[in-house]
Amino acid sequence: MKHFWLASWTLCERELVRFLRQRSRVIGAFLPPVVFWLLIGSGLAHSFRGANYLQYFFPGTIVLIILFTAIFSTISIIEDRHAGFLQSALVAPLSRVTIVTGKVGGAALLALIHALPFLLLAPLASLSIPVAEWIPVLLLLTALSVGQAGLGFLMAWRLDSSQGFHAIMNLFLIPMWLLSGALFPPSGAATWIRIVMRLNPLTYGVLGLQECFYADGSPLGHGTVSFGACLAVSAGFAGLTLIASILSASGHEGTV
Amino acid sequence: MNAVSVENLTHTYPAKRPSKTPRQALNGINFQIHEGEIFGLLGPNGGGKSTLFHILSTYFPPTRGHVEIFGVDLLRDIEAVRRKIGVVFQAPGLDPKLTVQENLKHQGHLYGLSGEILARRIRDVLGRVGLADRAGEFVETLSGGMKRRVELAKGLLHQPKLLVLDEPTTGLDPVVRREIWAHLKDLQESGATIALTTHLMDEADLCDRIAILNHGQLVALGRPKDLKAEIGGDVISVEAEDLPALGADLERKLSVKSTIVDGMLRIELERGHEFIPLLVGAFPGRIKSVTLGKPSIEDVFIHKTGHRFGTEDRLP
């Protein structure tokens, strides 16, 4: 057991150190969502009926930061598996569970580290998080980070080129974010969009964060789903991606 | 005890698409690696040596067959096997953004080493490969040869009984190549068994024993010296205009068999120096040049497969 934690932590730690030493990656994952938030939020400020758009877009931006960070850090698996550190890890006396824990843990931790500072910008949107909400927010962010990192791992493990990853990201991950309530609420959308949004696990992350930020009632009338349910769905999704990642990594491939 | 015992090993890569056929990379291989020897897996690209390396390194399991490493069945107890072997991949496995020390630290943790023991081991292995003073440097600032030595150190950290290396000197200049070999010989002296792949003939000569792989099959196995002796005394290469005709005449007139390899007529026989005057005398004007040589590992390969190393042209 000690070996498991030592090895998992070392994979995690390596991920953190490596990421933080590449300044462009830090900037690349954190700044674009912040710029999107400022530009789109200010641009739509008065076109969006019923709420201040900078406020509305705030939780969605946090989810985008988590998505970008988790994806950028799991993408390294693709190259790492053929040439790099991960190769050595694959022939070390470790179970694949250790490798998944380390890799997903590292990516999730990085996502959290990027998301938390953004919370400090909340006053810019005249938002504040009551002290009572700190722990729930942190729990939800953790669940979201693990879920996105797990999803990233699952895809990176199956792919053999990072170009393929970018394609999937644009075709699948970005739409997943677009339809999570990050940009617009389900209430005004077409029926089929509303159905897709209901089925999208990321929706519950955005909803849950909105619940925390607008404790006095959300600006665009949801409250349809309780915070507890949002947290449960997000944690459940994180658990699923973890299990799927472990199963995927445990299968022998027989190819170089 | 044998360090490695391989029986009836077969590996087939699954077809990438349903329309393609699966590729058989190894076909019923048998051999042993003795404890304490440097064993070379030699062969052209696509011959199967890389597949064999990946199986021995536990990177993936074989389709069929039996592999034992120091008496432990690879398919039964992969963790025990992994503790006994140190693996050095051909593709760089170091993190350029981390220091030498940090790279080794992470590697140690993967093998359950930590604290003072790990610190001591890192000092030991770095001293061994002559990089004791480079521990704090970022890997990206090291030369190619130094990086390869750090890879070697990484593989040695958990004190494996068997070191498995994939093309350890590929891409290195001759001086650095000799350095790496000096380290391998040192390791052998301290009791390690070493298995490595190579496509370099002169490297094969440095191994205690070699296995030559071609099209997934073992075509030769033994000490380089013995394999060369098997061919016979000398190899004579003849340059001439019409090789097939000359070959036929040679057999008719002097009852000597020859093969055409790479635009030369190739003759293997004892006491070559005595044969050359006969040869030149028998075909005045038809021979451009004659070369006499001792058989090399390359000649062993040609002898066994009928084509040159690195070319796939079959002889007529």
Low-pLDDT residue spans of chain B: 312-316
* Count of individual beta strands of chain A: 0
Poorly predicted runs of chain A:
none
Shape of chain B: elongated
Structural class from helices and strands of chain B? Answer: alpha/beta
Please give the alpha-carbon distance between the first and last residues of chain A: 30 Å
How much of the residues of chain B is beta strand, in percent? 25-35%
Distance between the amino and carboxyl termini of chain B: 44 Å
What would you say this structure looks like, in words?
The complex is a heterodimer of chains A (256) and B (316). Chain A is mostly helical. Chain A is 75% helix and 0% strand. Chain A has one domain (2-250). Chain A has helices at 2-21, 23-43, 53-74, 76-82, 85-90, 96-119, 134-158, 162-182, 191-199, 201-213, 227-250. Chain A is globular, with a radius of gyration of 19 Å. The mean pLDDT of chain A is 86. Chain B folds into 2 domains: 2-222, 3-Layer(aba) Sandwich (Rossmann fold), CATH 3.40.50.300; 228-305, Alpha-Beta Plaits. In chain B, helix 8 (224-231) crosses helix 11. The longest helix of chain B is centred in the middle third of the chain and has 16 residues, at 174-189. The two termini of chain B are 44 Å apart. Classes of the chains: A mainly alpha (256), B alpha/beta (316). At the A-B interface, helix 1 and helix 5 of A face helix 1, helix 2 and helix 3 of B.
Strand-helix topology:
The complex is a heterodimer of chains A (256) and B (316).
Chain A: H1 2-21, H2 23-43, H3 53-74, H4 76-82, H5 85-90, H6 96-119, H7 134-158, H8 162-182, H9 191-199, H10 201-213, H11 227-250
Chain B: E1 2-13, E2 23-34, E3 38-42, H1 49-56, E4 64-69, E5 72-73, H2 78-84, E6 85-88, H3 100-110, H4 115-128, H5 144-156, E7 162-166, H6 174-189, E8 193-198, H7 201-204, E9 209-214, E10 217-222, H8 224-231, E11 234-240, H9 243-254, E12 259-261, E13 264-269, H10 272-282, E14 287-293, H11 297-305
Parallel strand pairs in B: 3-8, 3-9, 6-7, 7-8
Antiparallel strand pairs in B: 1-2, 1-4, 4-5, 9-10, 11-13, 11-14, 12-13
Helix pairs in contact in B: 4-5, 8-11
